[in-house]
Amino acid sequence: MALKLQQLQSKACQASKFLSKHGTPYYKQLLEQNKQYIQEPPTVEKCNELSKQLFYTRLASIPGRYESFWKELDYVKNLSRKWKDLNVEDAGIATLFGLECFAWYCAGEIVGRGFTFTGYYV
């Protein structure tokens, strides 16, 4: 256990040195590349306004996403009715839709447990 702790401390020290050496140039480069997204003046009020815009924009997009969900579901139902005429492309789309539903179910279960993973022993 002590050996693992020393290894972890060593890696943390290496990461800290790397960040102190390369962090500032990377930060400046990142800001320069994305300056078109920076709002002026950079104040708390502007940040609050942008966060409200994002929230209400996402809220306004819910009806469109809801409608597209039901269209996808109807498409899958229609495919299941005529499964004998199913081609590879339609089967792939249906499989991806099922996997997406399963992934959302798994994510919901993880969130419901308070972001804890059960069943794994490390």
From TrEMBL:
The lineage of its organism: Eukaryota, Viridiplantae, Streptophyta, Embryophyta, Tracheophyta. PANTHER family: ATP SYNTHASE SUBUNIT (PTHR12386). It comes from Rubroshorea leprosula. Belongs to the ATPase g subunit family. It is found in: Mitochondrion membrane. This is Mitochondrial ATP synthase subunit G protein. GO terms for molecular function: proton transmembrane transporter activity. GO terms for biological process: proton motive force-driven ATP synthesis. InterPro entries: ATP_synth_F0_gsu_mt (IPR006808). One of its GO terms (cellular component) is proton-transporting ATP synthase complex. Keywords: ATP synthesis, CF(0), Hydrogen ion transport, Ion transport, Membrane, Mitochondrion, Transport.
